[in-house]
TrEMBL record:
GO terms for cellular component: cytoplasm; membrane. Residues 320-491 form the W2 domain. This is W2 domain-containing protein. Transmembrane segments: none annotated. It comes from Puccinia striiformis. InterPro entries: ARM-type_fold, eIF5-mimic_regulator, HEAT_5MP1_2, W2_5MP1/2, W2_domain. It holds the Pfam family W2. Coiled coil: none annotated. The lineage of its organism: Eukaryota, Fungi, Dikarya, Basidiomycota, Pucciniomycotina. SMART domains: eIF5C (SM00515). Belongs to the BZW family.
Amino acid sequence: WFCSTNPRVDQQVVGVFLKYSLGHSPFTSVSPDDQGSPTRAPTVFEARRILSAIFPAEFPICNFENIDPLMSAAAAAKPSLAGVRNKQRKGVAKAAAKFEPEEFRDQILKHLSTLPPNDLDAVAAKLDTLGNQLDYRKYEGPLFEVLLVGGILAPGGSFVDDGAEKSPFSILTSTQYPIDQVDMKKHVDVFNKLIRRYKYLQKIFEENALTGLLQYINKFEGPDLEKLAYALALFIATGLTSANVLLTLQKEHLVKDGVSLTFITKVFTAYLQVETGDHLSGALRRGGVADMYGFFPPHKREPSDLEGHFKAAKLDPIVAYAQKQRSGQVRDETLNRLREMVALEEPQAEIITFLQEQAQSGLIPDVDFIALVWHGLMDRLDMGSRPDQIVDMVVRAVVSVAPVLAVFCKNARTQISMINTIQVWAYENTKIMGAFAKIIKELYAHDALSEQAILYWHSKGSKAQARQHFLKSTEPLVKFLKEQDEDDDDEE
């Protein structure tokens, strides 16, 4: 075609053009292989540039527009299979589907309305079956809202007002009032069966459904509030959720008007009807509910407020739990401050004053307080020292802090507690087990331990950790104390 449109160009020139364009074009990234053959054919655009370089005079009359469509069509042509459909994956189709909670609710109500009234076994069986037909994972919020309160909730906690009827089964619509424990347990068992069948619902139930409902608990009152409190107590007691969901009730808009305190009191009261106080305390501890004052309005967060409220509600186990949690908090604060004072080498007089103030609060029992003081004073020691040096180092440290320890070893109970604390401490730090007898001797010499306390510990008050080793190491001291006691009796 090029030769026919350009008569002045002979075959030799065309051969040079082909060789130049296919193998030696300076305008392309194509390079020949070792045998001189090109790695690919030049494109039409590369050919234009080559012709313009070789035949500047003839190139303008060469019309390439006629062959461009042909080459473009050839390059764009792709194989196809007639009659083949691209099928979308099931999960992709579900994810792209429109979110229609009202439609989901209507489907649930349609199936539940066909069941006999109060037949909770039939409800559990139907919900089990519907899990294979409806998308529980996508509509977990509407599902549990229907089962808990009888309908779906709009943002803000109000029911969606679209004329739909309430569910024939829910904690609010089908449980008896006054609350019957057996009836409520049967309703909770429906949730248990559903969640055990579809295990992925348990995390959703706790983290989304219950917390979402509890943040709107101020929208419920009277019998509805009592039913939800009783059901929540059973959910926690049976392990369907942890007590961590209760922390939602510490939000400001629920706390300030006393809504949280009213509701949590009902939950605790219901819980103690089915389980013991120790069981409730364990559930609260595992759920991370440490600050009981967080349920009280800001102006009622004194220990007297908490104690007065829960004692009036006959919830003494909650009072004991709150005191224990508060004691642990004060203990940590005291220990951290003591370690800081020791590290800064503050005067012992200031350390004693600080510890006396903490002890007077009465939140830490005296036998626990002396253990706290020991650890706070001795934690600064370098336990990485050489074995032949560490014993003397520990004894010197004990002598230096003995005046502080003596202030808080006021009676035999605290003294025996301190000996046992030292025993366990030495057992856990094996390098200093050999220093135990010397420590006890120095504390006795500095009036931090009494003769009676040492003898009682040696006879029947010691801990189990390495008991025989420590009893044997203190035998010379015990023998000396007994002989001294006999000498005193002889003098009398």
